[in-house]
Amino acid sequence: MNILDRIIVDKKEEVKEKKELIPVKKLEKSIWFETMPVSMSHYIKRDDKSGVIAEIKRRSPSKGDINKYISVEEISIGYMQAGASALSVLTDQKYFGGTNEDVMTARKFNYCPILRKEFIVDEYQILEAKSIGADCILLIASVLDPETIKKFTAFAHDLGLEVLLEVHDKDELTSNTDSDADLFGVNNRNLKTFDVNLENSVELLSLIPEGKLKIAESGIDRPEDLVYLKNNGFDGFLIGERFMRYSRPHEEAAKFLAKVKELENFYPTNA
Ligand SMILES: O=P(O)(O)OC[C@@H](O)[C@@H](O)c1c[nH]c2ccccc12
Description:
Strand order of the largest sheet: 1-4-5-6-7-8-9-10
Oligomer: single chain
Distance between the termini: 43 Å
Number of strands: 10
Protein name: Indole-3-glycerol phosphate synthase
Pathway: Amino-acid biosynthesis; L-tryptophan biosynthesis; L-tryptophan from chorismate: step 4/5
Domain Indole-3-glycerol phosphate synthase: 4-251
Bound molecules: indole-3-glycerol phosphate
Radius of gyration: 17 Å
Pfam families: IGPS
Low-confidence stretches: none
């Protein structure tokens, strides 16, 4: 069994237990059901921002511990001050060390779009995302079939949440081109083998349906990488480890984004 399969087996079990512990009726009492979400697409398009979706990630199956001792309050505020367009917060505990509280903390201290980064296998988790104050959910094409993706997307939209659909290869992309997802993300990391290749997103770019926001995900390590992806046509950039491996991730993000600006002034982008 590859790592992704293992995560999904565990996730299904976890959701089953959670549903009994916190029934939907209870989730729906959250104040966030009465609150308008902040549009991730809108923030990604704003040209006073970098397009970076900055991620809070304590550990990962490929890297082990990345940063154990973090303050979500400090990093989330710092990321946004550094010029990020949005936040991505992992909530999977077992493999990534995240919690729902991390989203709630980020929400409490920031008015900005927040992506709840989770392995969604059940509509319950979409309600849960809403109940903790997220604005956008992730759906992973290698985990869900196109029909389920459509169903989950409609369900999320009914709650006012946006959807980032993650694909990794041509097959996953072409079988979901009629998806209503708001953003299409191409993951440069193969979740089954952990191989990372930046060219993966560039190669698939032209197959992303028109009108969808294009997000390059994972393995972005140098400011030059971001500028390269942007010049090729990407609107957004999901970056985690590059910032998280430093003791003060948000300061690293600020330095990184200052360097991007410098490069862009040197090689003006056509955006
Ligand atoms: O840390 P990186 O290489 O910058 O990657 C961030 C993000 O793209 C990655 O965490 C990710 C992309 N898709 C996922 C799905 C589940 C968990 C994590 C992910």
